[in-house]
Amino acid sequence: MKYFGIILTLVLSFQFLQAQEKFAVDVQKVGSGIQPDMYGVFFEDINFGADGGLYAELIKNRSFDFHQPFVGWTPFGDVQVMDESPCFDRNPNYVRLNEKGLRRGTGLENVGFTGIGFKQNDNYNFSFFARSLTENEMTFKVILVSAENENIGNAEIQVSGKEWKKYSAQIKATATSAKGKLRLILQTAGEVDLDHISLFPAETWKNRENGLRKDLVEALYELNPGVFRFPGGCIIEGNTLETRYQWKNSVGPVENRPLNENRWNYTFDYRFFPDYYQTYGLGFYEFFLLSEDLGAEPLPVISCGLACQYESEECVAVGDLQPYIDDAVDLVEFANGPVNSKWGKVRAEMGHPEPFNLKYLAVGNEQWGEGYVERLIPFMEALNKKYPEIKIIGTAGPTPDGEKFDYLWPKMKELKVDLVDEHYYRSPEWFLDNAERYDSYDRNGPKVFAGEFASHHKSRNNNMRAAISEAAFMTGLERNADVVQLATYAPLFAHVDAWQWKPDMIWFDNFSVVRTPNYFVQKMYANNAGTNVLSITMDGVNITGQDSLYASAVIDKNSSEVIVKIVNAGDKVHDLTVDLKGLKVTAENQKVEVSYLHNNVPEAINTLEAPNTIVPGQFSLTASDKGFSLKALGNAFYVCKLKILK
């Protein structure tokens, strides 16, 4: 009997370990609607995300207006920086080349952003503005130079006349070089002035002039973002008010957009980039146009008159805020105004007479304290008076809790902002522990914009553990879609050779793009957002970490699909049964399409050398009459879709 009892105990224990957890989804009890722009992306010009990244310009310091005007350039021969009678009044510097005919050579060489990537047989569009100081026609040779110092493409340009004119040539690369450079040689004796020396790949996103890097935009397009927040972040604030992002400087002819020192160039002494500037070539017009291309709602952020509070106490007195408020009001006119309005005309002249249909505007980034609140008030008064349809986004500060957060949220409710921007940069454990965060939020207060979030593993790598914790947390965002209406991971881009901050959703070098596990989590959510929330429970309660399991469910009324998202953040394999209650027609033998992200190693990452270590997989299941079963591996995220028969 003693041995029989032991055996019985072992059998029962084994059965318990293999017992199926049962999830219940009520398909008839359709909950709150999910905003079609719920899941999106946030762009900030950090990690060389704009110049040297998304913005396809290959020349660094093309107008010689960095504080050190030859940064990025190696001049040889007689080359001087000038500013008299410039070609562009807001970019006044240019260079004067004097070739004296001594055959020592006069010209310039540019190294681009960590080198210039040339691909064999690809075409490159070169241009500059020039004027001759002599009567003779002047000849320039333009050379694409490989890392091995070989000529892999060249063209000649003839310059004549004493007035500034634009000259251009297309050059085909005869070989591939990841870290090449551009060489420009004056071959005729005499003096010539040059400005705005530019080189773009001929193939950009939609082949636009002043275009964007095609492969990086394609990565964004695949995300199917509903909202696009830009242009930051901390660069909105600037280290000083002088270096804040000013949208009016970023529109109009690209050659005459004034340079700005990047907020991130010297913030971290261990990642110091004194050559990090903003040309504004990627400006607000381009951001709005990209939002339109992506099918995403544009969400610009503007300065509220406070420099970055982490680094400065500089601020604009409340009584002196009018120019900042005017900028905010004028931005709405630029985006939405008729072509006969002042700023609507600027948009139309840039090539887009139709309005961009701006709906959201964020005032300030992650400011805090009474100083922010008293500055937000006059912005809201002016915007609500002229554009009451615009949804205004306030901030809850830089952290998801604490004194600053606790002060700001009641103030945002009192002011009746439309959304409150919350930021979370926390450990994977925090994300796993906070899947219930919004279950108890006030359903009648302002809505939440999860404007910046990322799981920070102790390594700060974009690894599987971080991605899984974000997927688990996002089940709580989805379950509470009546409160949380927008969510954007941050930051978006990072150049592998020139980054200040990590983790980041997408890494790249001069040729390649690496989609991180975090990227795939965002893609799986955004491409399976659904239209309405459904209840999903285990033992009658929400699934928010019991035995490391997390889940949310939605219905897509447009496609008649039930979509169940399941995260197993632990190591143990779970046999799950998903019961669909309230089905009017049996689901028996229906296909359940499953996308999943899984890796047994929590620290696993994707790299340039192995970009597909962690990528989504797909398989299908056959449903029973009332649902389906799933074996959920450890450290995995699943999206399960079942079409409901009517």
From TrEMBL:
<keyword id="KW-0732">Signal</keyword>
<dbReference type="InterPro" id="IPR055235">
    <property type="entry name" value="ASD1_cat"/>
</dbReference>
<keyword id="KW-0325">Glycoprotein</keyword>
<feature type="domain" description="Alpha-L-arabinofuranosidase C-terminal">
    <location>
        <begin position="451"/>
        <end position="634"/>
    </location>
</feature>
<keyword id="KW-0378">Hydrolase</keyword>
<dbReference type="InterPro" id="IPR017853">
    <property type="entry name" value="GH"/>
</dbReference>
<dbReference type="Pfam" id="PF02018">
    <property type="entry name" value="CBM_4_9"/>
</dbReference>
<feature type="signal peptide">
    <location>
        <begin position="1"/>
        <end position="19"/>
    </location>
</feature>
<dbReference type="Pfam" id="PF06964">
    <property type="entry name" value="Alpha-L-AF_C"/>
</dbReference>
<dbReference type="GO" id="GO:0046556">
    <property type="term" value="F:alpha-L-arabinofuranosidase activity"/>
</dbReference>
<dbReference type="Pfam" id="PF22848">
    <property type="entry name" value="ASD1_dom"/>
</dbReference>
<dbReference type="InterPro" id="IPR010720">
    <property type="entry name" value="Alpha-L-AF_C"/>
</dbReference>
<protein>
    <recommendedName>
        <fullName>non-reducing end alpha-L-arabinofuranosidase</fullName>
        <ecNumber>3.2.1.55</ecNumber>
    </recommendedName>
</protein>
<comment type="similarity">
    <text>Belongs to the glycosyl hydrolase 51 family.</text>
</comment>
<dbReference type="GO" id="GO:0046373">
    <property type="term" value="P:L-arabinose metabolic process"/>
</dbReference>
<dbReference type="InterPro" id="IPR003305">
    <property type="entry name" value="CenC_carb-bd"/>
</dbReference>
<dbReference type="InterPro" id="IPR008979">
    <property type="entry name" value="Galactose-bd-like_sf"/>
</dbReference>
<dbReference type="InterPro" id="IPR051563">
    <property type="entry name" value="Glycosyl_Hydrolase_51"/>
</dbReference>
<dbReference type="InterPro" id="IPR013780">
    <property type="entry name" value="Glyco_hydro_b"/>
</dbReference>
